Each structure stands twice: as C-alpha cells, then as structure tokens.
Amino acid sequence: MRAAMTASSKTVALLVAAGQGSRAGGDIAKQFKPIAGKAVIAHAHDALAAHDGIDAIHVVLGEGQEDTARALLGTRAIASFVTGADSRRGSVRAGLEAIAAAGGADNILIHDAARPFLPGAVIDRLLGALEQGHGAIPTLPVADTLVRDADGAMGDNVDRTSLYRVQTPQAFRFDTILAAHRAWDEAQEATDDAQILKAWGHDVILVQGDERLEKLTYPQDFARAEAQLAKPRTTRVGMGYDVHRLAPNEELWLGGVLVPHDRGLAGHSDADVALHAIVDAMLGALAEGDIGSHFPPSDPQWRGASSDRFLAYARDRVTARDGMIEHVDLTIICEAPKIGPHRDAMRARIAEILAVPLDRVSVKATTTERLGFAGRREGIAAQAVATLSLPALS
User: Fold this and answer.
1) Nearest 5 degrees, angle CA 26-CA 191-CA 173?
2) 235-273, pLDDT tens digit by residue?
3) I need a surface site. Which of 182, 257, 286, 393 has the fewest CB within 10 A?
4) Is the pTM here over 0.85, yes or no?
5) Residue 88 φ then ψ, to 5°
6) Where are the beta strands (DSSP E) in 18-134?
C-alpha cells in the first residue's frame, strides 16, 4: 500500500532525550554533555532545525530535566517539552500522544538525541521513502566479520550479507506509528519504533544511513566526537585509471555488478576495471601507493579475487586515517556493453561497499568514437576521482 505525500504535508520531529546515559560516565545525562562547547541535545536540535522539510520539533525529556534542557537550548524553537517514561518506547509513546493532542501531523521523524550529527541528506532520503510507504529507517551495511561466542572462543562465522546497522531518525506516517504504539503489548519492550510498525503489519523501507550518525554511548565516543569537531580537516583528491582487455570465456564485472556480455575482462583478479580505478583514486588521495602495491599480481592469493575486497580495503584505509569519503566520480570508457541499464546497480553496489550514501557516488560512461583499443572493442578502461576529508596535518 502506497502512502501519498503532498506539498502541504506537515512533518514534525520528536527528539528523544529522556535517558540518563549512565554508560557515558559522569554526573550529567549524556544528552546534556557538551561537545565543542555545545550540548549534545543542542547539536541534535540544530541538525533537525536546519532542514526546511521539518515544521516543528518536540522534545521528550526525563522527569525534572526541563529546566536544564531549556537553559541549554536557549531561544531555539521548541513546539513542546514532553515528560517521558522509564523506557524509550514509553517516552516515544508519550511524545506521540502529546503531538496528537496538539493536532497531530502527517509525518514524523523520531530521533535519538544521542545521535547528534545528522546530515540533511539522510532526512531527504527518509522523507522521500515515505512517498512509497508508512515507515523508513536509515541503515548501514555491516562491514566487519561477525563470529559467534563459543565460551570465550571464536565460534561460527555469521553471514553478514543481509545484515544492517539501524540508525535514527526513523520516519513514519504519524497516524500509523501512533496506532502501532497504541496496539503494542506493553508487557514487551521494543528495540526501536520500526519494530513496532512492522509488528503492526507495515513494511519498513531501508535507506542509506551515514557514519556520522553513530550513537554516543561511552566516554570514548564523546572524546572522539570532541576531537573530530575540534580537529582541522583538509580535502584530498585522488585520481585512478585502469585498463583490462576483453577476452572470451570470462565474466564481465563492472562496478561490482555482473554485466551480461559476450566477453569478459581478463586479469589476475576478477578484473573489475571500474572498482580498480576507484581503489587507485582513494589510495592516491591517501598518498598510499596504488592497487598493485597492496595487492601484487604476483601473489597467488588474489587470483580470481572479487574486487569488492580491494575496494573495502581502501575504505578501511580511509577509516583508519579518521577520514571520510565525500564523493566518488567514476567514468567507464567502452563501446560495448551499454552502461546505462546497469548504472543504478553499479552506484548502489559501490555505495554499499564504501558504506556511503548513494548521492556520493557518480557513475558515467563514454566512448572513444571508435578510436584506440576501446574503440576497437579490445578492452575497457575506467577513470575515477575520489574526494576525501582527512584530518589536517599538524
């Protein structure tokens, strides 16, 4: 069932800040702790208020916290302060009921104050998804290897292919999520509001989340956020270029996607020329050599290897430098096959491997007007530009 949105739809945000955050340490609830001179709750409020699609912000607080919140939020616009409950679910329910009593809304974003660094692009994706359904959540793929605990030893590996980390804000049709909360069995606790909506019989759409939305839980999370905001950053740009020849009896992998074709690319790995170009661009921006220096063709372990492993490695190198992938621009150069029908799948796969929003990945294609090796259909080339944000050198 589709849920239509109109230009006159009213969208409100419910900022959930009712917890004590004991794991964060100290005597101050974590939503009131300062980061770079501003309280966490103020960072979260400002991120919501900066988006022109949000008409009002309601705040849920714990018992006796309103005076503290008012002092920290100052003159910022707050539609209402609501006293929460002992559980997150109960606090959200209290907020929903208060909004309903005040006239309700068409759409609502339910956001945890402990995720204060909210990019506007995530809100865009969530509100866009509500045009197709009653609920949407931001997610990130699980990048790490997962294992089970076998009495303190490593147990079986867990297949992470379809596993995602869930973030907030979570977006809903207001009347639907209110009804779902009212129908929920209060003897049970829910991990989030999407679980409640799903139990009410509605699908929840997954959209791309953002690494900046990581939850603040422990003291080291606050130290990292403080350092991140205080640290000057610089933009680094790298360029990558790669070529592989076309050969019979080979699969054609481009941009992490298997493309039907009468020939494939020949190489030591799966010869995904597009991903190789992106890897080189990212390593170039890091000034860490090229793909061959990290994955030498002479090493038999990389024979036939899937190139998504190389791209994931480059992503992890950026993360290890406290960097962020701002944008990747890829151009595939060939006469055939046609790239257009596969462009969206390539963008999605690259974004998934890099754990970045889809709008940070561009895939284009061109020909050489039948000139050179690409024009003679002897091979395929790709060039890429990667833009990274890194801590500035001291």
Assistant:
1) 115
2) 999 999 999 999 999 999 999 999 999 999 998 889 999
3) 393
4) no
5) -65, -45
6) 34-35, 38-39, 56-61, 80-83, 107-112
